[in-house]
Amino acid sequence: MSAMGGAGADLARMRSLTAELNRHIYAYHVQDAPTIPDAEYDRMFVELQALEAVHPEAISNDSPTFRVGAAPIPEFKQVTHTVPMLSLNNAFAPEDVDNFDRRARESLGAARIAYASDLKFDGLAISLRFEDGVFVRAATRGDGSTGEDVTANIRTVRAIPLRLHGDQPPSVLEVRGEVLMFKADFAKLNARQRAAGQKEFANPRNAAAGSLRQLDSRITAGRSLRFFSYGVGALEGAAMPESHSALLEWFGALGLPVSGECKVVQGVDGLLDYYAGVGKRRPGLPYEIDGVVYKVDRFEDQQRLGFVSRAPRFALAHKFPAEEALTVVQEIEVQVGRTGAITPVARLVPVSVGGVTVTNATLHNEDEVRRKDIRIGDTVIVRRAGDVIPEVVGCVLERRPADAREFVMPTACPVCGSPIVRAEDEAVARCAGGWTVCGAQKKGALMHFVSRRALDVEGLGDSLIEQLVDKGLVDNAADLYTKLDLATLAGLERMGEKSAKNKLDALEKSKQTTLARFIYGLGIRHVGESTAKALAQHFGNIDALVHGATWEGGLQLLEVPDVGPVVARSLGQFFADPASLALVGQLRAAGMTWKEGAHALKNAGALAGKTFVLTGTLPTLGRDEAAAMLEAAGAKVSGSVSKKTSYVVAGADAGSKLAKAQELGISLLDEEGLLALLNSTTGGSAAPTTKEAPSAKN
Which positions are catalytic residues (predicted)? Predict the structure, then answer.
């Protein structure tokens, strides 16, 4: 290709990228309805920047590299920012951070630089103006120079003070920060949206943006928005702090919310350590973040470094690997779950999402496929969060090929050939074969039975279960105890004699269990851990449960906590099946035993009415083990601290739960105190004690 031809291709690509990026900017910033993942936008943006660097004479006036957001929507009054609200350059790899640090050191002539490192919140950037300490106006970023006046809506955000703290506030203070919605509040909002038959929000960022852009501020007031401040636009009538970290401390004194996550680190090693540490804690944070932000800490140094184009030279956003990405649906197949549930699964062109290569993603059920209009051949957005199974969020309609095919739900199970049926009151279709007929359900039932929270058979993983079923060695859970021997196991793939013996020892150990674990391990539909515990405590033994769950006696199930008509019906169906009753009998005959529920324990009910909260790491007890001991004594184990909490059991690295318990004056126990309290309920000599627990972790 000639040089002229290459330049022509570059210019055509620049025009194409500019048009597509501007469409996505409008969808994201104005309509609050993103059409592609952030990572895909960033990739195209970087590509356009590189082409513009080669052909600066061809940069169009509407290039997104000239702007930070999008024009304000016309329904809101426009506000011109006193100081423009700029964006940040992005880093995606350690070498990007190293180059940022090197350029800063060379410009400042410094051997090492102190950086203020903080979280990059996934929310909506806002500027708040205070005059003589009183809140007077709020504006969105908009295009960086002009934003939307959202004062009435911001007044409904309770975290934002309407008057600053202190006797001598600055005459003018413009605070820059982020409005966001916490994960728990987002889940509650979407639950309300579903109940009202309204469209759900795609993510907390869009929920926050949509809530803040309501023309009726009463709607905003009904949604839980939060705010974190992290910068200053204009300041008059007060001295500017010397550093960014000092600024955040001053904000806190003024009553402005700050995240508390800012940390001053030294050099590039400190930056990368901070990034890695936040990455590990990211899933547990109460809000969404998509990276961290580095700023040269001293404001004098920031001024010397200055700005370039649309971003400051003294700051950098270091993004986490994408948790959303674009890829293509190659096929849609169905998987058969433990309870026979038929789940459509998209087979994808491999794509990296959150640092993990994804080839499959769930489509949940047939209704979801139709609602999202996902077709074979579509370009789709795939999302992954932590260890959650990747899912297809939606498709990019503008990229749909002409030969895209609609998904057709099969009428027969792909594993056993049984009919696929769907109850009138359910969204999920199921294989009618059941676990005695369908190999997929059989494998799922066995995997559930040996799982950690059920019978906890160490070393019996999914691949081994698949081998045992495929080779016809086991048909049900009882066969694990009666049909396997050392020679049989040692003859399997990747299995030696020592490993086989370990598996047999684990099976033997699992025979000594609890009634609650046994009930949960049976894999009865709708019976989770808490329901299994409630059933064990109420009935006390398996025979009483079987009788109580028959159609004739099923009504008494409604007296059990956590058991409603749906669970009662499911229990009745399970124990009305001769194969299920036979399995229970075979397991007991194989030697499986347990203490017959709370009714048979000496300390049963001794702690009834008491609520415990476990936090931190105990020296010898696992949290599940400690919870089981408390529940066997009749106590309730809760996940949150309130005035109704009786005791908080705190171990090492206890966090906010311990701090709240101390604030409320709730009795604290360490492991020794917990064991003493449990011993006292059985008539032992040890008296319950409360001791000083570890201090709350910052």
Answer: 120
Establish whether 416 is an annotated binding residue: yes
In a domain, 189, yes or no: yes
pLDDT value at 2 more than 50: no
- The verdict on 449 and 369 lying in the same domain is no
Is 387 in the same domain as 521? no
The total domain count for the chain is: 6
Q: pLDDT per residue over 125-140, tens digit each?
A: 999 999 999 999 999 9
88 has binding-site annotation: yes
For residue 189, what pLDDT is reported? Answer: 93
274 lies in the same domain as 185: yes
List b or e across 418-449, with b for residues whose CB sees 16 or more CB atoms inside 10 angstroms. Answer: bebeeeeeeebbbbebbbbbbbbbbbbbbbbb
456 is in an annotated binding site: no
pLDDT band at 691 (very low <50, low <70, confident <90, very high): very low
Answer yes or no: do 445 and 493 share one domain.
yes
CATH no. for residue 48? 1.10.287.610
Strand 647-650 versus strand 667-669 pairing type = parallel
294 known member of a binding site: no
8-state DSSP, 65: G
Q: Which of 77, 120, 511, 697 is catalytic?
A: 120
Centre a 10 Å sphere on the Cβ of residue 682 and count the other Cβ atoms it contains: 12
Is 390 a residue whose pLDDT tops 70?
yes
Residue 139 three-state SS: strand
- Both 184 and 50 in one domain: the answer is no
pLDDT digits (tens, 9 = 90+) for 144-201: 888 999 998 999 998 899 899 988 999 999 999 999 999 999 999 989 988 888 878 8
**434 located within any domain:** no
> 40: annotated binding-site residue?
yes
- Residue 88: which of 316, 321, 318 has the closest Cα? 316
CB 147 within 8 A of CB 72: yes
Within this chain, do residues 486 and 527 fall inside the same structural domain, yes or no?
no
- Same-domain pairing of 161 and 189: yes
| Position 424 confidence tier, pLDDT thresholds 50, 70, 90 | confident
CATH number for position 537: 1.10.150.20
